[in-house]
Specification:
Length: 90
């Protein structure tokens, strides 16, 4: 059973690093659009669906992209680890 625990630890570490990568990607996306497009004077903003473009791309589109990205990554790369076996050992 010890090897199974090590394998579970490796899986958990890999999934944690994937989560950290997603957070970093989300921050870079948000920062790039919010501060990249938001540097203009407010009278020079372009608008999408009534929102300033910097807000639309950083907050609204960024949320949609992250929701899809997280869903795909969780379904494709994350593994269900049973916790029942651990409880029986203790």
């Amino acid at each position: 059973m010890k090897s199974l625990k090590k394998q579970d630890e490796k899986i958990a570490n890999r999934e944690a690093w994937i989560g950290v990568g997603l957070v970093i990607f989300n921050f870079i996306w948000w920062f790039a659009f919010a501060y990249g497009l938001g540097k203009k004077e407010p009278n020079q903003y372009t608008y999408i669906l009534g929102f300033p473009a910097w807000f639309f791309y950083s907050c609204i589109l960024g949320f949609m992209v992250m929701a899809v990205l997280v869903t795909v990554i969780v379904k494709k790369y994350f593994v269900a680890i049973p916790f029942d076996e651990e409880m029986e050992e203790e």
